[in-house]
């Protein structure tokens, strides 16, 4: 939709707070009534953009899960690390803007959408791991939520940290992931180190 494409471009270049509905109208060249027929406010436009983006990210997550030749623990860590909106893993310009102060609402909305949609996918992997005897937990849904939130917190804006800080954050992630799922200590360190190195190479 042209309205969403235009608004997304303006949010990327000017910031959400610095873009008005008049800016969108002037850029497209449509009447205000036409805009309000589809969206009642700038916030509704942002919600539609975030929903569209979230669907794209979730498709990537589902493709990871469909790769049955990839070990379960690797799938789990790939989803949490590769789908972090701050790691530069997606060729999407709006994601490059989410950490700017004027786009705080955009970042918050993306994270909220991903949390609600991605947690069930992570939970499915955890339950499969429980069935295979790889993981142990009585709370797969709650652990899935904690893992997603934790990964998106400690790896937030990863490129701005020193090498020492990155290594410490990675070690903490591995430590807590293994304990949440009652895995043998060190069992996923190689997997996470490999994924972490790939993220480094991509940034």
TrEMBL record:
Which positions fall inside the HTH tetR-type domain?
A: 1-57
UniProt keyword annotations, A-Z: DNA-binding
Give the DNA-binding residue ranges: 20-39
UniProt xrefs under InterPro entries: DNA-bd_HTH_TetR-type_CS, Homeodomain-like_sf, HTH-type_Tx_Regulator, HTH_TetR, TetR/AcrR_C
User: Annotated Gene Ontology MF terms?
Assistant: DNA binding
Superkingdom of origin: Bacteria
> Could you list the residue ranges that cross the membrane?
none
Entry-linked Pfam families: TetR_C_39 (PF21303), TetR_N (PF00440)
Q: What is this protein called?
A: Transcriptional regulator TetR family
What PANTHER family does the record tag this protein with?
ACREF/ENVCD OPERON REPRESSOR-RELATED, ACREF_ENVCD OPERON REPRESSOR-RELATED
Q: Does the keyword Translocase apply?
A: no
């Amino acid at each position: 939709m042209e309205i969403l494409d235009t608004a997304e471009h303006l949010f990327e270049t000017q910031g959400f707070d610095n873009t008005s509905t008049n800016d969108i109208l002037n850029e497209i060249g449509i009447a205000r009534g036409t805009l309000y027929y589809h969206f009642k406010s700038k916030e509704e436009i942002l919600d539609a953009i975030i929903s569209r983006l979230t669907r794209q990210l979730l498709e990537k997550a589902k493709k990871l899960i469909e790769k049955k030749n990839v070990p379960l623990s690797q799938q789990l860590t790939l989803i949490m690390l590769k789908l972090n909106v701050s790691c530069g893993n997606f060729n999407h310009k709006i994601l490059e803007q989410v950490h700017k102060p004027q786009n705080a609402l955009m970042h918050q909305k993306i994270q909220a959408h991903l949390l609600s949609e991605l947690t069930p996918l992570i939970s499915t992997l955890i339950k499969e791991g429980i069935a295979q005897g790889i993981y142990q937990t009585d709370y797969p849904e709650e652990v899935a939520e904690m893992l997603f939130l934790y990964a998106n917190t400690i790896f937030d804006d990863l490129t701005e940290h020193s090498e020492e800080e990155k290594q410490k954050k990675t070690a903490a992630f591995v430590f807590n992931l293994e304990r949440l799922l009652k895995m043998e200590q060190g069992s996923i360190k190689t997997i996470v180190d490999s994924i972490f190195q790939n993220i480094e190479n991509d940034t």
